[in-house]
Each structure stands twice: as C-alpha cells, then as structure tokens.
Write a structure and sequence with these properties.
- The complex is a heterodimer.
- By secondary structure, chain A is of the alpha+beta class.
- Chain A has eight helices and 27 strands.
- The longest helix of chain A has 23 residues.
- Chain B is an alpha+beta fold.
- In chain B, 47% of the residues lie in helices and 15% in strands.
- Chain B contains seven helices and eleven strands.
- In chain B, strands 2-1-10-9-7 form a five-stranded antiparallel β-sheet, with no helix packed on it. A five-stranded mixed β-sheet of chain B has the order 4-3-5-6-8, with no helix packed on it.
- Chain B is elongated, with a radius of gyration of 31 Å.
- The chains are: A alpha+beta, B alpha+beta.
C-alpha cells in the first residue's frame, strides 16, 4: 500500500488545533547530545522567537497554537498564514496573542499574509528587540545540500525547542517551492524559524509528511523577505477586507498556476486504443492502478492512470484548495455484453462531494453528447459539474467527466478535477481536455 | 294504462332489500299495514307517501303531511312533491326507495367472464413479469451470478405483490362480498410491469436525450402508474362510490407525488447534483445529435450562472449539510 498513498493526503500542516488529538506519549528517545552549535543557535534565537496563539475572543482560551519569529527592530514577526487564518477570516470571533520564551505576553497585529506560500506578518507592540536576519545564501538558493540547520518553535505546547536537521534542497516534482528538511518538526512549530549555524534564517516551518519519518517542509526564506517588504511598503491590511484579500490572492495563484501548466506544455498518452491529455509539467505526478489481480476475476478489465498536481492551499480549516487531478480509466469488457458493460460503467466511483455548505454552494451539473475535437475523434458522453466558493467570487471547483461512445464493450472514462479555478481557466483547460481524447491509431 | 311501476327498498349498504311490483296507477308507502309498501322504520309515518302518475305520465312522489318529510335521495331539503322521471331515488325517514317505471332503461347484457379467466391472465402476466425481471437482472449483472443476487430480490417482489393483492382482496370482501383475488392479482401484476417498464423507459430516455432531470424526477411518473392501479383496484371492488374513491385516490397520489417532488428538489438543494454520468446504456441508445464543444460549454455557462446565484443566497439548512466542504 505505501506506494498508493498519495502525497496530498499525507502532508499535514502543523498548528495545534482545539480539535487535535490528545498528545501521544513521547517515544523513548535515544540519549542524544546537542551539538555546541545548537546551543549557540538557541541562545541567539531565544529572545527572537515567539509562540503565537489564536484565542477565542469570548472564552479567552487558545484555539490554535503556532510559532513565529522577529525579523525587524520595529517588532515585525513572521509566522504561517495557517496559524493566523482563523483570526484573518473572522477577526470578531478570535484575537491574536504572543508568548515569548521569557514569559512576556502581548497582543499581535496582523499586517499582511501570503496565502499561496502560507506566510503572515504580525507585529508586536515592543520595539528595539533583537531580531533574526535572513541568510543571503538561502535567499539565492545557494545553500549546499546536507548543511546542518536548526528548526525552532513550541511543539505541542511543550515549551520552546530547537531541533537539529539537514537542509535537503528544494522538493522535487513540486509546483510550490518548498525546502525539504530532514528533521522532526511537530504541530505547534508552524511558523517557527529555521536557521543555519550562524543563526540566520533559511526557512519557515510549515508542514510534514505523515507517511514518512522526519520528512518536513519549510517555506524558503526569500518569500518571507518579500512579504516583509510588502507589509512595509504596501497598503495596510484592512481586517474587514481580509476575505477579499484572500480571494484576490487565490485568484492570482490559480492564474499563475494555469499559466505555468500551459507553459510546461501538454502531450497525449495512450490508454488502450485511445489517447488522452497529459501535462508535461514535472510536478504533475502520475500513479497507475489495475484490477487485473483482483479475485474473483473481474469481468471488466480496468486500468487507471491518475495524475495530480499535489498542490494544496490552506485557506481555512475547512477549505483546502488549488489541486488539479486528471484521471483516465480504460474499461474493456472481458465477457460482459453491451448492457452489462454499460451497467459496469454506470457504477464508476464518484469522488467529489457535491453538497452545499457554508463555504461552497451545492453542485450543479450539465450533461450532453459531445463531438469535441476538430477532427474525427470518438463521440463523448460528457458531464460538467461545478460548485462556487461562497466567500471568493469567481472561484469554482469543477469536475469534468467524459466517456467515449464509439464501442459498446470498451471505453475510456476520463475525469478532470480543478479546485479553486476561475471559470475562464476551467473552460480553457476543460476544452483542451475534451479535444485531446482521440483514437490512438 | 297498463303501465307497471316497481318500488325498491334499499338496504343501508345500498343493495335492493325488497322490490314490489305495483300494477295500480297509485301506490301508498308507510309504516301501517294498509299500505302497498310497508316500511319498518320508526322515522317513517304510518301513511308517508303517495306515488302516482302525473299529467304526462311521469311518476311523482307526494308527501302526505308527515313530521320528517320527503327528500330526494341525495338532497338535504324536504320537498312536498318530487318528480321521479330523472332521479328515481327518494329518502323517507332513514330509508331509501327507488321507484322505476316499467319503461326504465337498463344496461345491456355484460359479457360473462369465463371461469378462471382472471387467474389465467394473472398467471400469464406473472410469468412475463418474472421473465422481464430476470432479463433485467441479467443485463445488469457485472459480477459472477449467485443465487443470493438473483433470488432474494425476486422473493421480495413476490411477497410485496401478495401483500398488496391481499389488501385489496380483503377490502373487496368487506365492501363487495367477494374477494376476487385473481382479478386483484391481475391488476397488481399489471401495475408492477408498468412500474418496471416506466423505470426502464425513464432511465433510457434520460440517457438517450442526456436529460438529467428526467432521471431525478422519474419517481413522479411512478406515482401516476400507482394512481391508475388504485383506480383499477377500486373499480374491481365495485363501480359504486367511484367518485368518492377517485377523490381519495387523487388525494393520496397527489400527496405522494408532491412529497416526492419536494423531497427530490430538497435533496438537490442540499446534496447538489452528483458528478456522475448517471445510468448508462450502450452507445447505440443515443437519440440526440452530438453537440459541438461550443454548445457543450454554453450549457456549462448555465451551471455557472446557477451556482453564482446560489453563492449569494444563504446555504440551505438541513441535517445533511456538509460541515467539511472538502471532505473526501
């Protein structure tokens, strides 16, 4: 099974939430002595790191915990967007507070955020405190693989911690630029700093893989540096309009993403006697499955290829968006007649939720028989389904299904899912997807 | 005047309890024994009615000045005199009478149903139903066949049919005196066949014309089939009170259809439309020309307008509402 675990379900963000599971008993750890370097880095970092708490206004109790760090003398600090998302989306219900290692407490002001890179800039009232500097080698991506780096934060609310780990470059096959950190980062460390030997910032703790050991992810320092610049120079964030700002950033993200998808180019791949669209982007990863080894022996052979962008943007604990999946299942009847085969196709799994809710509208679908290609491609039975994001105008989740209709005992079932996409991009990509379904010849 | 009149005294259930042939030009009706027709009803006067022929020969009933008076059969107001040419029924006290002239037209002879005809029909239809069900099961069989898969549903259908038929036969026994089980069974099986045919037809048309709505609201058609079935069952019980029975059937079926419609539209509002291709048929069943990609995306635009409208409305409330919007 491990190869079937797809990366997007396995990456977990790292705030501690009220709803999180109770802490597991700590694993007995081999006696390990921290290097002198770690002691030095922590000494340096101690007055510069913060715990960032989102409190429920009415109860005055914590709802989410994360970490952060000071980056300027005037009290600007960096954390993750997902640490402060509740406050950003609902400033009337929540408030932000920080706790320093020396026990100092205070309220925080939210100045800016970058949803796509999962970063936020907050400000404490004090000025003149020591602060971190960014490592210029990290900004230019010049850090050598294998360099010792140190992740800091307050894991599981157990106290401020420093974790020694290894810089392993940027994650391969990923649309989002993320640093691969080999070290244990845990819930509560989200937004905490990761520094090199000299105590300069390399990245920001953001997520870890649940299906691996000590596989952590950092946001590269340069995005944090850019966001600080924006917070300083750009128009100040109006809290009441934070939702609109999130919507604008999501729209900007999807626009850049679909441009990149187009820029990487497309090719077609064979699926039985048919061909379908495939992205040439290295970050679209594909997995294949077959039912050939099932018992009792299936009466229809089904071979499926599923490609995913594995992108995921955390907007709130209820909205994770920004993924594209493309899947093709080639069905061939072994000993079924045309009606039985049609029944088999009718029972294909339907993956996405269609319910209306607080964040998304209920789903609407349209069906037709389509001749999509300019040439003589196979006729298709197609279904277009979409849901709109209630809070973000012009963004949709779209599912497009197409089934070839040229044979009654074999067919290609193609499915395209796009989350958080603009209508124009959905139609452009959807059309391309339909037109690419052709005979292999 | 050699004309003869017949006076019928009806029972509480509307059957003829006594029928008197009157050859005299006038007849008297009442509780006293000197009447031509004697009625045992304490609300009838000893001398209650006189029935005679009017000037143009039509029969007329006349109240002889009684306490409770004379009513048309379905009337609510007493009348002193009543012409019986059109409506032969009258009510005195708690008794209903019908007076017929010998020239009163009667319905033509009804063809005798041969013995066990209904039973034979029911058997024939039952075999056809069984064959249709087996055929449908075979056509939708995608795994290895097993007795469980094939026989259990058939057993369920059979039990439902017998229960449904027994219910009607019991009603028939109560109101008509005869169970007429085989006739009711014949109607029930015909209904079942009609329901199966409708289900297949709706599914096929939904595919052939790419009409998702037809698949979503096909249940309404089933209610119409059910209405026709109830009518036929009631008719078999007896043609009397058909109007009241029809009212009841229409009310029942109308309520059922309305509830089903509300349920379907509520479901659609709460659950949205599922991203599936629906119930599929072999490609040869397509009955509409292929749309161009342009036409298809024009349809998609309709979905966009629809969700954009829903976006600014309050989300529908209900227990099925999604809490996690991206739960997968």
């Amino acid at each position: 099974m491990p190869s079937r675990i797809s990366p997007w379900v396995a990456a977990a963000l790292l705030p501690i939430c009220a709803a999180a599971a109770p802490p597991a008993p700590p694993a007995p750890e081999a006696q390990r002595t921290l290097s002198n370097a770690a002691e030095r880095v922590y000494d340096l970092a101690k007055p510069r790191i913060l715990q960032i708490r989102t409190l429920l206004q009415a109860a005055g109790r914590q709802s989410t915990l994360g970490s952060g760090f000071l980056v300027s003398a005037d009290g600007l600090a960096i954390t993750n967007y997902h640490v402060v998302s509740q406050y950003a989306l609902d400033p009337k219900t929540y408030r932000l507070e920080y706790l320093a290692p020396d026990g100092a407490k205070g309220t925080l002001q939210l100045l800016a955020f970058d949803v796509a890179h999962d970063l936020a800039v907050v400000k404490i009232e004090h000025t003149g405190l020591p602060f971190f500097e960014f490592d210029p080698r990290a900004i230019d991506n010049r850090l050598p693989k294998g360099e010792r780096i140190y992740a800091m934060g307050n894991p599981l609310d157990l106290g401020f911690t420093i974790v020694e780990g290894t810089y392993n470059g940027l994650v391969d096959k990923s649309y989002d630029e993320r640093i691969h950190f080999s070290g244990a980062i845990n819930p509560g460390m989200s937004g905490g700093p990761v520094a090199g030997n000299d105590g300069r910032i390399v990245g920001v703790n953001v997520a870890k893989r649940l299906d691996g050991e000590q596989v952590g992810f950092l946001v590269p320092a340069r995005f944090a540096a850019t966001l600080i610049e924006r917070a300083r120079k750009g128009p100040p964030l109006v809290l009441d309009k934070a939702r609109e700002e999130v919507g604008r950033q999501l729209d900007g993200w999807q626009s850049a993403f679909y441009d990149a998808l187009k820029g990487e180019g497309f090719r077609t791949a064979p699926f039985g006697p048919y061909r379908g669209l495939e992205s040439a982007a290295p970050w679209m990863t594909c997995w294949a499955t077959t039912n050939a080894d099932l018992l009792p022996k299936p009466r229809t052979a089904v071979n499926t290829t599923r490609c995913t962008s594995a992108t995921g943007i955390f907007v709130s604990d209820r909205i994770l968006t920004g993924r594209v999946d493309l899947s093709y299942s080639y069905y061939k009847a072994i000993d079924l007649n045309a009606f039985q085969f049609a029944t088999e196709l009718s029972s294909h799994p339907w993956t996405f939720d269609s319910r209306g809710g607080k964040r998304l509208t209920e789903q609407e679908c349209r069906d037709d028989f389509v001749a999509a290609g300019p040439g003589a491609g196979p006729p298709l039975r197609a279904t277009w389904c979409m849901r709109a994001y209630r809070e973000f105008e012009g963004l949709y989740n779209v599912t497009l299904l197409a089934l070839t209709q040229d044979h009654d005992r074999e067919a290609l079932l193609a499915q395209l899912n796009m989350q958080g996409v603009s209508y124009a991009n959905a139609v452009t990509f959807g059309r391309r997807f339909l037109e690419a379904i052709q005979w292999a010849r | 005047m050699g004309a003869v009149m017949w006076i019928e005294v009806l029972s509480r259930h509307g059957e003829v309890a006594a029928r008197e042939r009157i050859e005299a030009p006038e007849a008297r009706v009442g509780r006293a024994f000197d009447n031509d027709v004697v009625i045992d009803d304490v609300h009838v006067a000893p001398h209650h009615l006189r029935i005679y022929r009017g000037e143009d020969g039509e029969l007329v009933a006349e109240d002889l000045g009684t306490l409770n008076g004379l009513f048309p059969e379905h009337g609510a107001k007493p009348v002193p005199r009543l012409s019986l040419a059109r409506e032969p029924g009258i009510r005195i006290g708690r008794t209903t009478l019908r007076v017929h002239d010998s020239a009163h037209p009667v319905a033509a002879e009804k063809l005798l149903t041969p013995p066990r005809a209904h039973a034979r029909w029911a058997a024939g239809l039952g075999v056809s139903l069984l064959l249709v069900l087996l055929l449908l099961q075979w056509l939708s069989l995608t795994a290895e066949a097993s007795a469980n898969v094939v026989l259990l549903p058939l057993l369920g259908y059979g039990t439902a049919l017998v229960l449904w038929t027994s219910l009607w036969a019991m009603l028939s026994r109560i109101f008509f005196g005869q169970a007429r089980f085989s006739l009711q069974l014949r109607i029930a099986i015909t209904t079942f066949i009609a329901l199966v045919v409708w289900g297949q037809l709706a599914g096929t048309l939904a595919f052939s014309f790419a009409w998702r709505d037809l698949a979503e609201y096909a249940g309404l058609g089933a209610w119409a089939v059910l209405a026709a079935a109830c009518y036929a069952h009631l008719h078999a019980i007896g043609p009397r009170h058909m109007r009241a029975a029809m009212g009841l059937v229409i009310a029942l079926v109308g309520t059922g259809a309305a509830v089903q419609y509300l349920g379907a539209s509520e479901t659609r509002k709460l659950l949205g439309q599922r991203a599936t291709l629906g119930e599929l048929r072999p490609p040869e069943f397509r009955l509409v020309p292929l749309a161009s990609a342009d036409a298809f995306f024009k349809k998609a635009e309709g979905a966009r307008l629809s969700v954009d409208r829903a976006r600014v409305k309050e989300p529908a409330t209900g227990g099925l509402l999604s809490d996690l919007d991206n739960a997968e």
